Amino acid sequence: MKIIIFLSAFFLILSCGKSPLLLKKNNDTSVISGLEVHKIFKTTNQSLTLNWLSPVNSIDEGHALLIVKQQNIATDFTKDFSVILWMPTMGHGSSPIQIKKLGTGIYDLSQIYFIMDGLWHLRIQLKDGSNIIEEQIFEYYL
Fold first, then answer.
1. Distance CA 82, CA 126 (A)
2. Using CA atoms, how far apart are residues 112 and 124, in angstroms rounded to an integer?
3. Domain coverage including residue 137
4. Of the candidates 49, 105, 45, which has an alpha carbon nearest to the alpha carbon of residue 70?
5. Residues of the chain scoring pLDDT < 50
6. φ/ψ (deg, to 5) at 10
7. Residues 87, 120: contact at Cβ < 8 Å?
8. 1/13 Cα distance (integer angstroms)
9. Would you say 132 and 141 are in contact if contact means Cβ atoms under 8 Å apart?
């Protein structure tokens, strides 16, 4: 009976991928917290600054400011846009990011949930209807 319980537990641990006992969690978010990243949409000549207001990790809700400028002057997107959180290695995303316009060229991004550790892309897409015109990707490894 003990052997059956042992073998069942052994196969259960192996069948679930990596055991949580083997995962090392790096709780040091000081490298990413408050990080500013800059990208440029070439089609509209608009620069993007992503300023994180919260730690970027799989524990806390993510919160950031997206600032859009053209020739160093705050400006709104000239096209429709979307912000998507995507985990390319797993082929899935997370819950939709909440976007709130605070002023000209300033967007509050909240409810950003990195639901597990690994490689994540925060994709900002310029759109014309359902067509993606251009995409900028901010990459994070948790």
1. 7
2. 13
3. 24-141
4. 45
5. 6-7, 9-33
6. -60, -50
7. yes
8. 19
9. no
